[in-house]
Amino acid sequence: SRHSCIIVPMAGEGGSLAGAQWYDSGIGFAVVKPRIDRVLPQLVDMLAPGAKLALISSKMGSIGARNSTSSWLYRASKAAANSVLKDISLGWAAKATCVSSHPGWVRTDMGGPRADIDAPTSIAGIRQVIASLDASRAGRFWMYDGSELPCDLQRGDVVRIAGIALALALIATVYPAWRAAKVDPAEALRY
User: Fold this and answer.
1) d(CA 164, CA 161)
2) Which residue of 39, 78, 108, 152 could cross-link 64, Cys pair, CB 3.0 to 4.6 Å?
3) 21-75 pLDDT, tens per residue?
4) What is the pLDDT of residues 89-122, one digit of tens each?
5) What is the CA 25 to chain-centroid distance, rounded?
6) Cα four-point dihedral sign 86, 89, 91, 93
7) What strands lie across the sheet with 141-143, from one edge to the other?
8) Distance (Å, rounded) from C-alpha 40 to C-alpha 51?
């Protein structure tokens, strides 16, 4: 049967266990989830024309909103899943509106009692985001409250990072080569 809306929950990644991906938090628990590369291709034939597909991801996978270096493996797995979703949204544009969605920091066993929102608020928000989807919102990353989580790629940042990387590469290669060129080969072989 064909569906007008499919929601794909995604946990973190770290290895494989009986065909599923899992994330070992390092503090005694693992989250099992289906592999995005195996699940999404199977869904294409299940989608009704004009369907909506939401990948439940995490703000921790947003490069533009990143403000911490903690949980880097979890963050990388979310960023990769969001990237795959973007590709899927381009490939399936004629068939479905595909987005990533962040449910918020939810008071659950994982989010804990200090989290910002309760589960009913998160669910209602995601339902509203999905209901409001159209082709102009496809391939993007939406918060449960309807705000967008952009990839904030700035030209100046790219130029600055490339310049620093080039300078470090030169320092790491040219300076040692220059010092080595000053050494008498016969003297160096003596030791």
Assistant:
1) 5
2) 152
3) 433 333 323 333 456 667 777 778 888 888 888 888 888 888 777 787 777 777 7
4) 999 999 899 999 999 999 988 889 999 999 999 9
5) 17
6) negative
7) 3-9, 47-56, 96-102, 141-143
8) 14
Cα(11)–Cα(21) distance, rounded to whole angstroms?
8
Q: Interhelix angle for 36-43 vs 72-91, to 10°?
A: 20
Query: Would you give the distance in Å from CA 165 to the centre of its chain?
Result: 24
Query: In terms of DSSP bridges, do strands 20-24 and 15-17 run parallel, antiparallel, or are they unpaired?
Result: antiparallel
Lookup: tokens for 104? 């918020």
Q: What is the dihedral angle through the alpha carbons of 116, 59, 41, 37, rounded to the nearest 10 degrees?
A: -110
- CA gap 14, 165 in Å, rounded: 28
Neighbours of 6 (CB within 10 A): 19
| 3-class secondary-structure state, position 86 | helix
Neighbours of 123 (CB within 10 A): 14
**Full-model pTM:** 0.63
Distance of CA 78 to the CA centre of its chain: 3
